[in-house]
Design brief:
Bound molecules: NADP nicotinamide-adenine-dinucleotide phosphate
Radius of gyration: 19 Å
Shape: globular
Strand content: 5-15%
Number of strands: 9
Number of domains: 2
Order of helices and strands: EHEEHEHHEHEHHEHEHEHHHH
Structural class: alpha/beta
CATH topology of the largest domain: Rossmann fold
Strand order of the largest sheet: 3-2-1-4-5-6-8
Number of helices: 13
Largest sheet: 7 strands, parallel
CATH class of the largest domain: Alpha Beta
CATH superfamily of the largest domain: NAD(P)-binding Rossmann-like Domain
């Protein structure tokens, strides 16, 4: 593969894919709606790209052999523009497409990723699906403030388990699928090594941060009140409620060894991730800019 286009290149997973690709023998093109000089390190080519602006597609897709495809979490705005963009890419020779999908997409007709998977299956592109579990990074991107300011995690997940995965492991899978053979027409479940409850998450964070973090399995009503107090808008908190309800119902806990088989190494545990991210939970550290969740914005 000579030239790889990374969509979502400024996001949680895409930024890590860009970093990892710079170690490979490929030209890396990083797609963002707002390219700026020195935004990316090394020989990365930033390119203006917007799923909603077909006029940006030609320059982004030209000469590209493989693409990492991220569905931006802004459901309402991006909508169906992804499918024509995929077709445009395939028409100009993007042969291989690696989609960041969601664990369970094959069973859940409500997930937009399922429609994108079907579209890719029906296309001429060589596809790989990375069906990722909840990112560990959500704890920082979405819940950092309640953890640092109040020492609690407020999600309506009951005692359901989640097979959290580190974004870095998702990115490593993407790079393997984009640059190596043997991943064509495969769908991988990209999970961490174990499924844990939010009680476990709170306990592990308390140990790592050396201060108390609690989880009390709040009701949906308390979660909604809490979210409104934090200023989350209704569409975001409804998507969050739906996602955490899947965890409460036990639908987010599937553990797979796909990552270990592909990468030939163990995946990161939540305990290890927490230890590595202690400083990011320091109350005086900068707020992360990104606060999107799986399927939401
Ligand atoms: N969070 C989870 O736990 C989880 C788990 C499994 C799967 N997923 C899936 O992962 C995907 C999100 O990945 P992520 O968390 O890495 O992304 P992210 O951090 O939320 O970043 C979103 C990216 O989308 C880009 N973007 C936004 N609007 C765009 C547009 N109109 N056209 C082109 N690009 C646009 C942004 O780039 P610019 O602003 O620079 O243009 C940004 O790089 C979603 O499909 C989600 O369902 C998430």
């Amino acid at each position: 593969m000579d030239t790889v286009l990374v969509t979502g290149a400024t996001g949680t997973v895409g930024s890590r894919v860009v970093d990892r690709l710079t170690d490979r023998d490929v030209t890396v093109r990083a797609a963002t709606r707002d390219p700026a000089d020195e935004q990316f390190q090394g020989d990365v080519e930033p390119v203006a790209f917007d799923f909603e602006k077909p006029e940006t597609w030609g320059a982004a897709f030209g000469g590209v052999d493989a693409m990492f495809l991220v569905r931006p979490p802004a459901i309402a705005r991006v909508g169906d523009s992804m499918l024509p963009a995929i077709d445009a890419g395939a028409r100009v020779g993007v042969e291989r497409i690696v989609l960041l999908s969601v664990l369970g997409a094959e069973q859940n007709p409500l997930l937009p990723h399922r429609r994108i998977e079907k579209h890719l299956r029906d296309s001429d592109a060589t596809w790989t699906f990375l069906r990722a579990s909840f990112f560990m990074e959500n704890l920082l991107a979405v819940h950092r403030r309640e953890i640092t300011e109040h020492g609690e995690i407020v999600v309506p997940a009951g005692d359901g388990e989640t097979s959290f995965v580190a974004a870095d492991d998702v990115a490593a899978m993407a790079v393997a699928a984009l640059t190596e053979s043997g991943h064509e027409y495969r769908a991988y479940d990209v999970t961490g090594p174990e499924a844990v409850t939010y009680y476990d998450v709170a306990h592990t964070l308390s140990d790592a941060l050396d201060r108390s973090v609690t989880y009390e399995a709040p009701s949906l009503a308390r979660f909604v009140r809490h979210s409104r107090r934090l200023g989350r808008d209704w569409s975001f908190l409804l998507v969050m409620a739906a996602l955490y309800t899947t965890a409460r119902l036990g639908l987010a806990g599937r553990v797979s060894d796909d990552v270990k088989r592909v990468l030939g190494r163990p995946t990161m545990s939540f305990r290890e991730w927490a230890k590595r991210n202690v400083t990011a939970f320091d109350p005086s550290a900068d707020e992360p800019e990104n606060n999107s969740l799986n399927g939401s914005e």
